[in-house]
Amino acid sequence: MALPGDKSTGTANGFEAVIDSVADLLQTAVDWLRQEAAGVVQEKIVAPIQRLGLTLVSAAAAAALLTLGLTFIAVALFLLLANWVSYPGALLIIGAVLMLGSIVFLFIKVRSMQK
Fold first, then answer.
1. CB neighbour list of residue 87: distance below 8 Å, 6 or more residues apart
2. How far apart are CA 65 and CA 52, in angstroms?
3. What is the pLDDT of residues 50-80, one digit of tens each?
4. To 5 degrees, how large is the angle CA 104–CA 110–CA 111?
């Protein structure tokens, strides 16, 4: 218990109040900096990565649907060609077209590398 004439505890209580006030001020500053940092990270890093992820997923889904559609079209064209000529003839025509396409691609690639 503090005596009425004892001034040391009054000074300590005043000093402790100042320390508590400074600690509260520092805690408020730290909280504010954390909030600002979280906002900046959300705005500058997280949001663009989310947009990039959605774009990549959308592109992958579109590519899968395109591949599936092209597969159905290729099968339908093969069956149509097989009705006009026989199955071996359809396979021969498709193989020849693919070989010619690869030769043209190779020729174009070699010419562009020589330039």
1. none
2. 20
3. 999 999 999 999 999 999 999 999 999 999 9
4. 90
d(CA 111, CA 101): 16
Please say whether the beta carbons of 101 and 93 come within 8 A. no
Distances (CA, A) of 53 to 34, 40, 42, 45: 26, 19, 15, 12
- 84's CB contacts (< 8 A; 6+ apart) are 90
Residue spans per domain, the chain: 9-65
Please state, in angstroms and as integers, the Cα–Cα distance from residue 113 to each residue in 60, 69, 94, 103, 105, following that order: 31, 34, 29, 15, 12
Q: Are 53 and 45 in contact (CB under 8 A)?
A: no
Q: pLDDT (tens digit, 9 = 90+) per residue, 33-55?
A: 899 888 888 888 888 999 999 99
Nearest CA to 95 out of 103, 50, 108 is that of 103
**Which of 76, 114, 83, 81 minimizes the C-alpha distance to 97?**
81
Stated pTM of the model? 0.55
